[in-house]
Amino acid sequence: MKARVTVSLKPGVLDPAGRAIHHALEGLGFGQVSEVRVGRVVELDVAGGTTEAEVADMARKLLANMVIENFKVELA
Fold it and tell me: What does each C-alpha distance from 75 to 2, 51, 52, 67 come to in angstroms?
């Protein structure tokens, strides 16, 4: 079974990578972009029967920094 954890910065947390991408996009002529936020996706192969709560526990303990990041779990 596949699990996907999407990790993103909490609102209000500075995003230097997003800012650099935004600046580069403006330099390439893409002025219509007003903000860029960078996150990451972690895909896991988990045993059948693994619950969303178990994957969320993995995210809280290892995959996301709960001080500055949020996460979303999807099971497929």
Answer: 6, 8, 7, 24
